[in-house]
Design brief:
alpha+beta, Thiol Ester Dehydrase, Chain A, 2 domains, 5-stranded antiparallel beta sheet, elongated
């Protein structure tokens, strides 16, 4: 998809995949995100502080995971008329930096009259364990 095109409602199909998209979040990037959001807890900045809380090391903030899944959907939409209107996530396990993460999604429902689309999204680790799961809603204007 070129930068000047985007997804249109009539081209969306149930079962359509988003991703997979692989990413590795390095510790400095996770720290910068946490700092920018005012999250000063040691669990987001330092391995030892995180271990003192019973964690295996520093973790990626949940809002960072939410942002990654939002970007998966908006990248899929491209520059077209569709808009991400809602995304909700459930955090099933901690997300660790410096690990290969894979972002996935697929279209689960299309509401023709409302011109809306529901999408299941999730983040997996290297063992294909779903760390974060969620649902996104996309709305398209009456005509596109």
């Amino acid at each position: 998809m070129s930068a000047n095109t985007g997804r249109h409602f009539d081209s969306v199909a149930v079962g359509e995949s988003l991703g997979p998209h692989e990413i590795v979040i390095e510790k400095p990037r996770a720290r910068a995100f946490a700092a920018a959001c005012g999250m000063d807890s040691g669990r987001f900045h330092d391995d030892e502080a995180a271990r003192a809380e019973g964690l295996p090391g520093m973790i990626i903030p949940g809002n960072f995971s939410l942002g990654l899944l939002s970007k998966l959907v908006t990248d899929w939409l491209g520059a077209g008329p569709g808009r991400l209107t809602r995304i909700g996530t459930t955090y099933r396990a901690i997300v660790l930096p410096e690990r290969r993460l894979t972002l996935h999604g697929f279209v689960t429902h299309i509401e023709r009259e409302a011109r809306s689309v529901e999408i299941d999204v999730w983040i997996e680790n290297e063992e294909a364990e779903r760390l974060v799961i969620g649902t996104a809603s996309v709305a398209f204007p009456p005509t596109d």
